[in-house]
Amino acid sequence: MGKSEALFEQAKRRIPGGVNSPVRAFGSVGATPRFIKSGSGAVITDVDGVSYIDYIGSWGPMLLGHNHPVIREAVIKAAENGLSFGAATESEVTMAELICGFFPSIDMVRMVNSGTEAVMSAIRVARGATGRDKILKFEGCYHGHCDAMLVSAGSGLMTSGVSASAGVTAGCARDTLTAPYNDLETVTRIFDRNKGELAAVIIEPVAANMGVVLPEDNFLAKLRALCDANGTLLIFDEVITGFRLGPGGAQERYGVYPDLTTFGKIIGGGMPVGAYGGRRELMEQVSPLGRVYQAGTLSGNPVAMAAGIAQLTYLKEHPEVYEHLESSAEKLFGGLQVLIRRYDAPCALNRIGSLGCLFFTPGPVRDYGGAKSADTGAYAEYFRHMLGSGIYLAPAQFEAMFISDAHQDAHIEKTLAAAEAFFGSRLK
Ligand code: PMP
């Protein structure tokens, strides 16, 4: 038995399912989670000393690759001054100014510790500001695990086939309405049936928790117009897309601007960080200025801020990162597309920038139903083959592939060679 297997057996006795977040479990792909010891650039190494080219990147934040020296040094320097004060620090001001500088839709921002907290808080602001209770979300979008968002959710819930959680009250779930992604007709109907009652529409502007699904046919702009016509706030959950699809996130890429934006892990460079922000009059509703209460002992933690500031400053000073991400992603997904054609594989690819997904269904995949039609058994085989070839993919079909600035041509060529061996072997 390898060390990872032994640790997993030990872990299962003390940690539910042996993991501290369900998306880390390898259950749906019939494998044992690898326990990771270290990471450098595009490569991670497990406790058995096996290295993998990593396409998860801690689920997004390692945009510059693992253990980037600039971020590591910033963290060490900050830690030398003390780990937490629960008091105001200069780094929080720097961070707020950086985020507002990148995102013109954000006048004010509040730091929290995770994407879940960011979303939960943004929803509270929307309800507080509008005096309305109902929220509309999209099937297959995941917005963290606050009660209101555990309805028709993607990511780990989708993989486990439940899409809703036990322990959420009926009252709470009743205030969360859902519509299929990209389905404006249903959204319009929901608006009509709930006149004056919808506080907010929340959406991943590019969905990345049911695999990757792109907004089609000006969907985001049409949502914006519907929200405006109904006094409903539009929340973009940019936990995945913010700073990944470009310095100004999905909103800049699509030219559609929300009232409130949520961020997560990526703005912490790997440290536990989240944030929500938006127009001044909305954010002025937040305590201690306003009546929407929201707090956090470790919010704006100086070590986490140092990592985030280092990552965001690096992106500001190195805009070429985005060109590199785009060209690497083009090579990888362009190469996969060639393989799909060459081997006549019943697969579909969705990609934007450095975010993409290979679906084991002919597609097209434009919503939750389409994603659900994927052959998860085939994905599991593909996953195990790739893992055995030193390629670390998401251990579930309904997750994204994340490319970092550290991925070089050699990594992509090795990945494509492994994928070709898989498709070739299935043809026989
Ligand atoms: N929103 C989105 C779009 C996410 O992808 C995630 C997590 N992957 C969250 C919110 C929740 O973030 P966290 O896991 O940091 O609570």
UniProtKB/TrEMBL annotation:
This protein's encoding gene: hemL
Record GO cellular component, one term: cytoplasm
Protein name per UniProt: Glutamate-1-semialdehyde 2,1-aminomutase
Pathway(s) served: Porphyrin-containing compound metabolism; protoporphyrin-IX biosynthesis; 5-aminolevulinate from L-glutamyl-tRNA(Glu): step 2/2
EC number(s) per entry: 5.4.3.8
Subunit structure: Homodimer.
Subcellular location: Cytoplasm
Cofactor(s) needed: pyridoxal 5'-phosphate
Family designation: Belongs to the class-III pyridoxal-phosphate-dependent aminotransferase family. HemL subfamily.
Primary enzyme class: isomerase
PROSITE patterns according to UniProt: AA_TRANSFER_CLASS_3
GO molecular function: glutamate-1-semialdehyde 2,1-aminomutase activity; pyridoxal phosphate binding; transaminase activity
Catalyzed reactions: (S)-4-amino-5-oxopentanoate = 5-aminolevulinate
Modified residues (N6-(pyridoxal phosphate)lysine): 265
Superkingdom of source: Bacteria
Keywords: Cytoplasm, Isomerase, Porphyrin biosynthesis, Pyridoxal phosphate
One Gene Ontology term from the biological process aspect of the record: protoporphyrinogen IX biosynthetic process
CDD domains xref list: OAT_like
Any Pfam family the entry gives: Aminotran_3
Chief subcellular location: cytoplasm
